[in-house]
Amino acid sequence: MIESPIPLDALLRSKGDHSESIGLPPGVYSDANFHLFEMEAVFGSEWLCVGRQEQIPEPGDYLAVTRAGEPLIVVRLADGSINVMSSVCQHRAMCITASVERTEDDMLDPPDHESGSARTFRCPYHYWVYDLEGQLIGAPEMGRTEGFDTADVQLPSLVVEEWQGFIFANFDPDAAPLTPRLGKLDYVLANYDVANLVTVDPFTIPDVPFNWKIMVENFMEMYHQSRLHHGIHDFAPSSAASYADYQAGDAAMYGVCDTVEPDGGFNPTSKALFPPFPGLSIQERQRIVFALVAPSLLMGFQADSAFWFYVDPTGPTTHNLSMSYLFPASTVEMENFGEKLEEAIAGVSTFNVQDMPTNVATQVGMQSRFAPRGRYSWQEGVLAQLNTWLVERYEAAVMSN
Fold first, then answer.
1. Number of domains in the chain
2. Which pLDDT value is given to residue 98?
3. For an engineered disulfide with 274, which of 82, 220, 248, 304 has Cβ 3.0 to 4.6 Å away?
């Protein structure tokens, strides 16, 4: 385990609720050595979302994704289960899902994820072939290599869990199960029928120029809604925010913000663009839920739709940000769904136009010699919860060294 360049006692000062904790040390947002420590302490042992189950409905359907710098394959097996395994060929480390037919520009800027259907995976470099479970089943011209046996070669697999239609994987085979620690989130989302929602294809913004935690913090706290987004966010004011309690062992945090009227929406009209979720109560139609399955799956639920973001660090001051919407199947089947979806995406962009430069400026500020460790408002109490969750992992990693 890599050691933390920031002393543990400095990190521990960020534990607690909003009334007593302070912000994380500024170095956690930019220090290259701390980034390496964090990637092992957090991303090397926590559950990372790798997609939605409806993206790979049939045996052989797969997603090729990168998580925490590791290229992975997410594939549906013949028995309906899901396998998540390394995409790194066990011969000379070529990524077996990489294309050798891309243009030069494609190779310099590869997509964040690919999808398809396959019966086997063949490395394009030397044509080593693996089955859907990662077992090597073909290796040309290896007969003269003494002691070589294809049965001895297997793509490393990760432990996998499914929750509400989301697929999670973990690099730590001994990690505590995820699903039992999401009971609070199951309760608040019960009427959204999340497991049966349909995702549209995610799109990814590569190397967003600020630390991944800044993105998570901005998404989850509702203090800035009535300030930074004054006018366009008035339908869900900061004063109507509340957060669920956090307890050690919880795998998620969430907050609720009441809207001034039922069926609000993140667009210039402040109104829902699609029919409301069929199972919602009137009270649920008059609120928004913001949730984090730590460390990096972000979800937002409004009356007519949901959206999910995946935040994947690519360096101490950059991350890839994948975004997508979730809808009931009946909504996706609407005749004008495509038109309405474009309108919804354009609506969210009005918020991003304000959020993105703010987050970039926050990254600059965190690298200043004058960067603070500020106190929190109750309207950003979830940030103290996130800090506590993170520091618990930092502390465990430090103590294990």
1. 2
2. 74
3. 304
Question: How far is residue 383's CA from residue 373's CA, in Å, rounded to a whole number?
Answer: 13
Determine how many CB atoms are found less than 10 A away from the CB of residue 87. 23
Spatial distance between the Cα atoms of 130 and 297, rounded to a whole number of angstroms: 30
b/e code 39-73 from CB counts within 10 Å (16+ = b)? bebbbbbbbbbbbbbebbeeeebbbbbbbbebbbb
Residue 106 has pLDDT above 80, yes or no: no
Nearest to 390 by CA among 220, 256, 186: 220
Query: How is 48-86 classified by DSSP, letter by letter?
Result: EEEEEGGGS-STTEEEEEEETTEEEEEEE-TTS-EEEEE
pTM over 0.85: yes
Instruction: Tell whether 345 and 371 lie within a shared domain.
Output: yes
Angle 53-389-182 (CA atoms, 0-180°, nearest 5)? Answer: 35
Domain presence at residue 173: no
**What pLDDT is stored for residue 111 in this prediction?**
44
Question: Minimal CA–CA distance to 269: which of 346, 368, 335, 165?
Answer: 346
Q: What is the largest CA-CA distance in the chain?
A: 74
Report angle CA 6, 9, 14 to the nearest 5 degrees: 90
Would you say residue 308 lies in a domain? yes
Average pLDDT, the chain: 94
Per-residue pLDDT tens over the stretch 78-104: 999 999 999 999 999 999 987 655 454
Contact 62, 116 (CB under 8 A): yes
Any domain includes 320: yes
Q: How many residues does the chain have?
A: 401
- Amino acid identity of 44? G
Q: Look up tokens 């697999």; give the residue.
A: 157
Q: What is the mean pLDDT of residues 231-249?
A: 93
216: in domain: yes
Residue at which a domain ends, from 162, 191, 206 = 162
Sign of CA dihedral 314, 164, 84, 253: positive
- Residue 352 lies in domain: 8-43+178-400
Do 114 and 211 belong together in one domain? no
Using DSSP, state whether 161 is helix, strand or coil.
strand
Q: 68: domain CATH number? A: 2.102.10.10
Residue 136 tokens, joined: 């090597």
